[in-house]
Specification:
Length: 331
């Protein structure tokens, strides 16, 4: 009796299949873009790029997700839930290089493709990492942006994201290495706003109170630079303290107009999300990730993996009053 019912169901299904066409049963490839936290404009721009890649590839579903605040614990919860859902790939921008590794190893052991992008995961926790650009270049860029507007030198401070953030920590280390090339530029402090607007604002206020001679706040985070610009503006210190670092033209145009920010830099976050999605898809479909391998990133070109399984996308671009208006509606 049971067998009979089963045969009928299978027969019924094959009728439906032949009506709908065979593709009706082909499942989409589900790629999760896990960000440091939801609500950050930089990651929302990256998600646009991920959707663009999905549309170009066809049969790809993007799951844009992340914790509500920039913690490793929040990301681990998100990753465990993606493992339970059985997604095909996870592309993560990490709040901590080591804390996420066990959860991501578990994902890989279940056959899920794992890459990191933007902010990396320790090598054992992912198959590759995509840097936005060369780390030494970003480190030098953030110091140069400040130094260019300090002809007589002076005190500068860094306002970063979280203290465990892989990307900001690497850029800050690279910045410290080139500091001796900028004589007269004196780094007095590094503080952490955790990529939260209110905490970043308070940290910027704290810097101004502690270092009355401060000439620049360098924030290598899109959240931090905007909060610092607001704090400097509210303190009436435009012209006294230049706020610079890495920001989005869409968020920073007003700061450039007011003079709070003379210039800032960033790479294209839409391209970064697009490239990360292409890499996750191609690795899921068998692209090799050993040292020297080249993995396609669609319209961006190909990523060639170094000995740490990392590659870089493109150089950052500098924005100021001459060009910020042309980009503010894009990202
Ligand atoms: C913030 C995040 C992100 C970083 C940018 C520059 O949006 O910290 O990881 O790449 O700033």
């Amino acid at each position: 009796m049971k067998r009979c019912k089963f045969t009928k169901i299978v027969a019924g299904l094959s009728v439906v299949a032949s009506i709908m066409g065979t593709t009706a049963f082909a499942e989409d490839t589900r790629i999760a873009l896990v960000v440091k936290a939801l609500g950050i404009g930089f990651f929302e721009a990256a998600a646009k790029g991920a959707e663009e890649a999905a549309a170009e590839l066809g049969g790809v579903e993007i799951i844009y997700t992340g914790p509500t605040s920039t913690t490793a614990e929040g990301q681990i919860e998100v990753i465990n839930s993606l493992i339970a859902q059985g997604v095909d790939a996870i592309a993560v921008s990490a709040n901590d290089p080591d804390a996420l590794a066990p959860a991501l190893k578990k994902a890989m052991s279940r056959g899920i493709t794992v890459i990191s992008w933007d902010s990396g995961v320790a090598q054992e926790g992912r198959q590759m990492h995509l840097n936005p650009s060369s780390t030494p270049l970003i480190g030098n860029t953030i110091i140069k942006l400040a130094a260019d507007h300090m002809p007589n030198g002076g005190d500068v401070a860094i306002l970063s994201a979280t203290s465990t953030s892989t990307n900001q920590n690497a850029w800050i280390d690279a910045a410290k290495e080139v500091l001796p090339n900028y004589s007269g530029v004196n780094l007095v402090a590094t503080v952490y706003g955790d990529d939260l607007s209110d905490k970043s604002y308070r940290e910027a206020e704290g810097l101004m109170a502690t270092y009355p001679d401060l000439k620049a706040i360098i924030a290598p985070t899109t959240v931090g630079i905007l909060a610092a610009c607001q704090a400097v503006t509210d303190a009436g210190k435009i012209g006294e303290i230049n706020v610079t670092g890495l920001g989005l033209p869409s968020e920073m145009a007003g700061c450039v107009d007011s003079g709070a920010t003379k210039s800032f830099a960033i790479w294209n976050p839409i391209d970064l999300g697009y490239a990360a999605t292409m890499l996750a898809y191609n690795i899921h479909n068998g692209a090799a990730t050993d040292e020297g391998s080249s993995v396609e990133m669609g319209r961006i070109g190909s990523a060639v993996l170094d000995e740490t399984g990392s590659a870089a996308m493109s150089d950052p671009f500098t924005y100021d009053s001459s060009n910020v208006g042309d980009f503010k509606s894009i990202f």
